[in-house]
Amino acid sequence: MPGARVIARLDIKGPRVVKGIRFEGLRVVGDPNELAKGYYDEGADEIIYIDTVASLYGRNSLDTIISEAVREIFIPITVGGGIRSVDDARGLLRIGADKIAVNTEALKRPGLITELSRALGSQCVVASIQAKRRANGWEAYADYGREHTGIDALEWARKVESLGAGEILLSSVDMDGTGQGYDVELIRSVAENAGIPVIASGGMGSPMHCLEAIRSGADAVALASSLHYKKAGLNEIRACLMDAGISVRQWEERSLS
Amino acid sequence: MSDGRRYKREAMGREVAIIDYGTGNVASVAQALERLGARVELAARPSEVMSADSLVLPGVGAFGDGMRVLKERGLDDALMEYSLTGRPLLGICLGMQLLFESGEEFGSTKGLGLLPGKVAAIPREGEGRARKVPHVGWSAVTPPNGQDWTGSILDGVLPGESVYFVHSYMAVPDMDSCRIAECDYDGCVVTAAIQEGPLVGCQFHPEKSGKTGLRIMRNFLKM
Is A80 within 8 Å of A169 (Cβ atoms)? Predict the structure, then answer.
């Protein structure tokens, strides 16, 4: 089977990478492509770019950032935030993105997922789910964790697969930025019913957290704060997973002179 | 090729044409080749295919659609003529599959037929349980029968290194000799790379396979 993936996630506002806690209090972290290049060199398996304000302002401003990224970064790139149509998605794929993540517009209009997967193939379509705990289970949030929708996150996770999504980016609003570990209960609840890969996001603070997420059924883990603030390194995480007998991407680190 | 032309090529970086037939990943392939110092042109017309020194056939999507577009634009005949000249041709993903004789997808579609063999769906069942299709992700590639990769397009890659796959179909070559790498996807042996003289193919995406992928593309540029 393909190895467990370790993914760098960059939350973008305007020209900068930002990061908050529980999707709030966003602070500037740095330049997107400087960070992305660094994570690529360290051996990230993929990069995810999420425009944090796109849904709010009605447009995705990642075109320039992605056009630059593809000159230096030769691993799969996922782009999300404010994507409303097949045309939006095609534009991003044309400049070099590999997958498109959708949340807000898909919650409003679930058929978007089907349109995207028919036009581009399900392997291109990532359903981004921002789940926040409530008295009973989890609720799916829109607009980068700002707007509640009343939709049950587990039901929505089951639905996106039948609509044609190829992958789920599962973010825990509660654990995001806390460094206290992934919401393993959420991961387990979604992964148990999912026939498509699940990327766990939100809460990573130590390599052991990644192992917990994978053991709970995640196919991949996404990291943001822990990488941006150098709390954990990609090599350290890879070593932790390998020690536990989980296969990860293998490559030989040699110069390409 | 004259010595003068060879000198110019080495001095200015290898010139490569990527066949542009409306598939999605042209930009990524072009960026990777440029990163390696090649001068990249897009070839959308038969004349541009015929005049290329070195050619890449990328591709994402369905065999039937890919072949139909190549035919509509007269690129299928151009590719067949090009291949007779002995100049290097790299097929990536669907581009590799199209090098074979036929694809079985909603019935059978004729391919370019540059290599004997067919393209078949990855079986959705194996070893008594469901297999996820498409095969997406980083998987290890190994040489069949422990052959040596020295001098091949995989020169310098170590058996067991991972590369990035996204596919639902796989090439099944008639000749074992052209299979230089395979990958075990959940119990299904997938032909991962082929090489037969100047014809090479990668089922995976070297342009998305990090430094391992760039190494493979650089080997192609040296052909």
Answer: yes
Residues of B known to be catalytic: 93, 205, 207
- Predicted confidence at residue A119, as pLDDT, reads 86
| Per-position b or e across A38-57, b if 16+ CB within 10 A of its CB | ebbeebbbbbbbbbbbbbee
Residues of the domain holding B130: 3-221
**Interface contact A123-B136, CB threshold 8 A:** yes
CB nearest A3 (choices: B157, B162, B214)? B162
Whether residue B12 is predicted with pLDDT greater than 80 in this model: the reply is no
CATH classification of the domain holding B116: 3.40.50.880
What are the residues whose beta carbons fall under 8 Å from the beta carbon of A15, sequence distance 6 or more?
A31, A32, A64, A65
Contact criterion met (CB below 8 Å) for B78 and B70: no
What are the structure tokens assigned to B221, written together?
């540029």
* Chain B: residue whose CA lies nearest to A90: B24
**Chain B residue closest to A72 (CA)?**
B35
A112 in a structural domain = yes
A222 assigned to some structural domain: yes
CB B55 within 8 A of CB B16: yes
Amino acid at B161: E
Whether B35 and A98 lie within 8 Å, measured CB to CB: no
pTM of the model: 0.91
The count of domains in chain B is 1
Residue A255 domain flag: no
Give yes or no for a cis peptide into B134 (omega within 30° of 0): yes
Q: How many domains does chain A have?
A: 1
Four-residue CA torsion sign, B222, A2, A220, A101: positive
Question: Which residues of chain A neighbour B208 with C-beta distances below 8 Å?
Answer: 74-76, 98
What backbone torsions phi and psi does residue B170 show, to the nearest 5 degrees?
-145, 150
B186 contacts B126 by C-beta, under 8 angstroms: yes
- Domain assignment present for residue A126? The answer is yes
CA atoms of B142 and B154, how far apart (whole Å) = 10
* Whether the predicted pLDDT of B149 surpasses 50: yes
Handedness of CA A92, A93, A94, A97 (dihedral sign): positive
Residues of B with Cβ-Cβ distance to A6 under 8 angstroms = none
Q: Please state the φ and ψ torsions of residue A125, each to the nearest 5 degrees.
A: -110, 115
Q: What is the pLDDT of residues B45-103, one digit of tens each?
A: 999 999 999 999 998 778 888 899 999 999 999 999 999 999 999 999 999 999 999 98
Q: Kindly determine whether residue A5 and residue B161, on different chains, have CB atoms separated by under 8 Å.
A: no
- CB of B50 within 8 Å of any CB in chain A? no
Q: What is the pLDDT of residues B176-191, one digit of tens each?
A: 999 999 999 999 999 9
